[in-house]
Amino acid sequence: MIILTEFAPAKINLALHVLGRRSDGFHKIDSIVAFADVGDELRFEPASEFTLKVSGPFASLLPATENNIIRGAWRAVSEIAEARGKLLPSVLVTLTKNLPVAAGIGGGSADAAAAMRGFLRLAGIEMDDEIRKAALSLGADVPVCLMGKACRMQGAGERITPLEHFKPLHAVLINPLIAVQTSAVFQKLGLAVGDKHETSLDLSDAATWRNDLMPPAVALVPVIAEVIDALESQQHLRYARMSGSGATCFGVFKNAKTARAAAEKISALHAHWWVQQVTLS
After folding, report:
1. Which residues are tagged catalytic?
2. Which of 80, 90, 99, 165 is the 20 to 30 Å CA partner of 112?
3. Rounded CA separation 106/189 (Å)
4. Backbone angles phi, psi at 237, to 5 degrees
5. Are 100 and 175 contacting, i.e. CB atoms less than 8 angstroms apart?
6. What is the pLDDT of residues 97-130, one digit of tens each?
7. Is the pTM higher than 0.85?
């Protein structure tokens, strides 16, 4: 077995419209998703049994490795491989956790998707609908992270349409290093089963895009509003929003130079925040 690596990029919700709550309890969404050029890294190497090690700046904030979503991805791909008469060899997975945890940028989902890609390569299995269904069983964001490029995500996360003509965006990501639990934000949103919320997004008009989870997230974690204010005070900003259920926010800028200048200025003022200049694609 050769040593493999997979990149797990941060997932950014450029728009996240919550349209209602379905009869199965899941929320119906309409979202535009892009991926940053910062993320976690996974390394796969031979081992006598499946083993997961975690390192990196945010490693200490993850749950115990036996509960990690990467282990769930291992089980899912193992079952598929066995049913197809394939062998998924035992492997040591080393996760370098570079992204904040519970940050609204799909860190766990991105890790699971990268793990699945690595496991599929090791087992010699091509992507198909069964794999995508298994990804959805791990989490609503795992299928879009498995695709790893700009998409429109609808339903409960299962309807994914690639945005073939998406132009890369220059952005700044900021997280105030306060974890936000997705379930608490949706609970604060307060939609009952059958409730309808706002309208679907207009794909052609980014100015009308929004994140419906931002008001409940700000009510729970007020510093999110301070992050948005910090972005909106910068020159050459096109727009600023929160990603996912927070607390990470992003600002899209005119070009890489203006994004870099904004990141440097905000980092100087808020040294305790996680600030990254990125390209979204």
Report:
1. 11, 141
2. 165
3. 20
4. -75, 135
5. yes
6. 999 999 999 999 999 999 999 999 999 999 999 9
7. yes
